[in-house]
Amino acid sequence: MRGKITTQFWPIVFFFVTLIILFIPMMHHNLWSSDDWDVHLLRMQALNQQLDHQQFPPLFDYWSSNQRGFSWGSFYPPLTTLVFFISRLILLGVENNALQMKVSLALIIFIAAASAFYATKREFGSTSAGFLGATLFISSSYFLCNFFQRFAIGECLAMALMPLLIRGCNALLSGNSDRKLIPLAGTLILLSNIPSVIVTLIFFFIFSLIYAKKVFSKDNILFLIKSAIIVLLLTCFYWLPLMYHMHYSDIYAFSNMQHSYEFINGTRVSFRHLLFATKNTDTSVGYRLFLSPGILVIVLSLTALFTDKERVSKPMLLIAGILMLLLTPAFSWTWIPEKFTLLQLMQFSWRLLSCITAILALYAVLPLLRWMKKSKTWLATFPVLLLLQVIFPIQGAIFSAPPEYSSTVLFHDYVNNRIKLPVTNDSLNNSGYPLLTEPSDFINGFPYFTVEADKAGIYLLPYIMYSGYYLVIDGNKIPPIALENGFIGVPLSPGTHHLQLGYKTSIYLIPAAVSLTFMLLLIGLEIRRYLQRRRLRLDHGERYHIDDAPDRSNGR
User: Fold this and answer.
1) Domain that residue 498 falls in
2) What is d(CA 464, CA 376) in angstroms, rounded to the nearest whole number?
């Protein structure tokens, strides 16, 4: 099945029809009701405001109502922020939050399709296989659940990259050049969604156990060490500032959003919901979600398992089976000691489905390719089954009433632990400190105040306190006061003062310079290797032509 297969017309048709079906909810005049839609819309709106006010790097939201300088940019993995920025460029200045979000979602769908297409085509040496793999992946129940039910944009993007990771791991076993996809996918997943990093670590641990002899060869060990260094250096612009805030900023998410294994146990999925792709009705966390790869993907994968005579799919499908057991009642997460906290970052056991689905969609292609060659019945049966797999996760997005959006909600994720929610004007006025309200201007994206102080004392600047802030008062740079209510305190003497809030951007710019330098170095090395290989091919061709040229010297 790995031989070259002639490109077929119908796999391409089914792929584009699937894309059209997925874009039907995009035609909605607004966004659809889902779990985290308002969080990501607020993130995107904050980014737009920061770019409009030339704040670099874009970190703090001083403009959205009641956000109080809240920082998504300091903590949330930045790859989806890049997607928001690209969608902003595509719209050429059109200011429409719903439209920009839809363009961002469409970009992620295209990334997922391209990732699955490349991985499947390289795995089986077939363009038809590539289109079928992409179709099965983007139509899978859990992929659509992340989009149209959970609105989990970070996890959507991380899941979109999983096929590249799977292909890279397969290439690691054979020494194929595609093993470079491991550090590439690892880097992009880390910059997309932290819980998905835990999913990849669990997958790779099981993968290494099953393929221990091949994975732990000397060459592969050196490659994996180099890959780990590459991932760490390319992403240090994100995780180094994150570590800084973990140590100095006392953020709610770092101390209160890491769930216990008992909680993760409560997110397990029953076998009937997992295998038959029905709505989850057994647990409050994930209630009414489609927590399954999808019935079509599962049936085709099982067919591949029992009909693959070359046994190319069985070990990887075994890994998918083990991962599926981990998210069902067959496994208890409480068997893991609470002291081993790393896996708790995954939060929900069903996040393993992002990796499971990528594996199953890859090998579900095998029986489809055989079916396609032997009979034309697949032309009628496959699209019907595909439609049934797609329609249920997206129907809510098609028929739901447009949600009401409010930017006044201050989410607790990345505030400091001294902040008491909800924050209102009354709570600030009654804080016991004179309140500085509207800034006179913004300089480089940071607020500037002209203040008339009636008396000496500490004044309240209504912005959330984060480590790294500084104040410039009448030209003098001083550290701010961290008030007990979580906001910024400003010491002022009586009289008129000019006050500028600033931030030590070197916390971000120095790690960013390291990542950028290393990325340019890698690109330069890859270009050099390409040119060397090209020169060798040309030299080989010239020698071939010289050696094979007929000798006409005796005929002169």
Assistant:
1) 425-503
2) 63
φ, ψ of residue 484 in degrees (nearest 5): -70, -20
Q: What's the pLDDT tens digit per position in 377-392?
A: 888 899 999 999 999 9
Q: CA angle, 420 as apex, 419 and 426 as ends, to 5°?
A: 110
Residue position matching structure tokens 């992946």:
137
Q: Work out how many domains the chain is built from and give that number.
A: 2
Residue where a domain terminates, one of 399, 434, 454:
399
> 443 in helix, strand or coil?
strand
Across 436-440, average pLDDT: 90
- Claim to verify: residue 392 and residue 443 sit in the same structural domain: no
Give bridge partners of residue 408 from the DSSP assignment: none
Measured CA to CA, the distance from residue 44 to residue 555 in angstroms comes to: 78
Instruction: Report strand pairing: 487-492 vs 457-464.
Output: antiparallel
Residue 538, phi then psi, degrees to nearest 5: -65, -45
CATH of the domain at 477: 2.60.40
Mean pLDDT of 303-311: 84
User: How is residue 280 annotated by DSSP?
Assistant: P
439 and 481 share one domain:
yes
- The kind and range of the H/E element at 462 are strand 457-464
Pair 109, 138: CB distance under 8 Å: yes
**Which residues fall within 8 angstroms of residue 525, CB to CB, at 6 or more apart?**
none
Q: Are residues 383 and 469 in the same domain?
A: no
Q: pLDDT tens, 179-231?
A: 999 999 999 999 999 999 999 999 999 999 999 999 999 999 999 999 999 99
Q: What is the pTM of this model?
A: 0.93
Q: Which two tokens stand for residue 192?
A: 């997309």
